[in-house]
Design brief:
Length: 155
């Protein structure tokens, strides 16, 4: 590991380290998703490669550096985290937008909640995810209070 903790050195090659601000259980879930996706690369590369990309972006290993976040990079990371977490869980399971915000924002996750809801709205319009409240599909832009994210019809 480099002194600043940003990179791992393996056989002389430098690799970006996982964002240390990701809470442990979410980090483990993303690592498990990454490993599951990597196992598919040889047998089903078309399915596996987007899964690997989402997991690596969510972990902070690709995309904007986690130590210098940009608003655009955080939105990309929020979307990747939402997709990766939903892929890793059972098909009928849901996640909270705050899970993605915790992945992308660390201790400052609350500052990303508006962006997380906006990203959820974009993914919902594309049919990738469904936004639910009380078990019913809702429009996240007009929903008041907590919502859950599920796999959408275009998953």
């Amino acid at each position: 590991m480099t002194a600043d903790g940003r990179y791992l050195i393996v056989s002389g090659r430098r690799w970006r380290a996982t964002d240390p601000a990701i809470p442990g259980p979410l980090r483990q879930e993303l690592v498990n998703e990454l490993m599951a996706a990597r196992r598919l690369v040889r047998s089903d590369p078309e399915t596996a490669r987007p899964r690997v990309q989402d997991a690596k972006v969510a972990l902070g290993e690709r995309g904007d550096p986690w130590w210098e976040p940009t608003p655009g990079g955080q939105r990309v990371r929020l979307a990747a985290a939402m997709r990766a977490l939903l892929r890793h869980r059972r098909p009928e399971a849901t996640i909270c937008p705050s899970d993605a915000a915790r992945v992308a924002g660390g201790e400052s996750w609350r500052d990303l909640m508006d962006a997380a809801r906006e990203v959820a709205a974009e993914l919902s319009r594309a049919g990738v995810i469904a936004v639910r409240q009380g078990g019913a599909d809702v429009d996240v832009t007009s929903a008041k209070g907590p919502v859950r994210l599920a796999r959408g019809p275009e998953w």
